Amino acid sequence: MNDKFRMIGQLGASILIAFLLFFYATTTNYKNSTNINQSQPKETYTNTVNNVPINIEYDSEKYFISGFSSTVTVDLIGSNRLILQRETDEATRSFQVKANLRDLDTGTHLVKLQVLDLPTGVNANLTPVNLSVKIGKRASKNFTVVGNIYDTQLAVGYSVSKITVETETVKVTSDEETLARVDRVEAVITDVSDLSQNYTGTATLQAVDAQGQILPVVFSQEVTSMQATIIKNKN
To answer: May I ask which residue range the UniProt record assigns to the signal sequence (predicted)?
Structure first.
């Protein structure tokens, strides 16, 4: 009887030892496999996205901003190519670039851009990283619209006899300093040259100072109709 119990005890011990050895080997292989995977660097990819719009936050009723670039270049970096492609496409992307001007007063400022709502595992580099912007007190004033065709747009030997525009006056909005520099508002055509006959079409409005420099403003309307009578010069 004692021999029988002894055999059963030895068999049970052997089974327990075999189980422990199996468990140890399995755990060791798993840890080694995990360490190998963790030690192998993941391949990363970079997608460059051009002309990403900047969401600028400011008090638009009190201030007028100018002198800034409205877009930025974003390098998206990550290991998941599908997510990168989704963020590259404007229709499916989740991230946005923001500039917060709400705590700033008038003057020219350099503001650090922020990237928000990036997917997990994706990083972003911006070019440029800062936004240069001029902030001024918002102001508006009405100006008479004057039609203008430049001499360089006329064919040789021709001149402008008369110009009429449909819009007589327009409301111009800018910062106080810029608005004070506005000398006149011109209606101009930019897509014609060598004019030798009468013109009827659409003209774009622009505000210029006394030296003819175009100023950053917003109009109550951006375009108007224009008619110009072109005549041949007499010899």
So the answer is: none
Query: How far is Cα 220 from Cα 225, in angstroms, rounded to an integer?
Result: 15
DSSP conformational letter for 153: G
pLDDT tens-digit profile of 114-160? 999 999 999 999 999 999 999 999 999 999 999 999 999 999 999 99
Domain with residue 188: its CATH number is 2.170.120.40
**b/e for 76-90, b at 16 or more Cβ within 10 A?**
bebebeebbebbeee
The label of the residue with tokens 């009578």 reads 229
Tokens of 82: 């599908």
Do residue 110 and residue 63 come from a single domain? Answer: yes
Q: In the chain, what is the straight-line distance between the N-terminal and C-terminal CA atoms, in Å?
A: 141
Domain tally, the chain = 3
CA distance 21 to 172: 86
**pTM for this predicted structure:** 0.75
Question: In degrees to the nearest 10, what's the CA dihedral of 180, 181, 183, 189?
Answer: -120
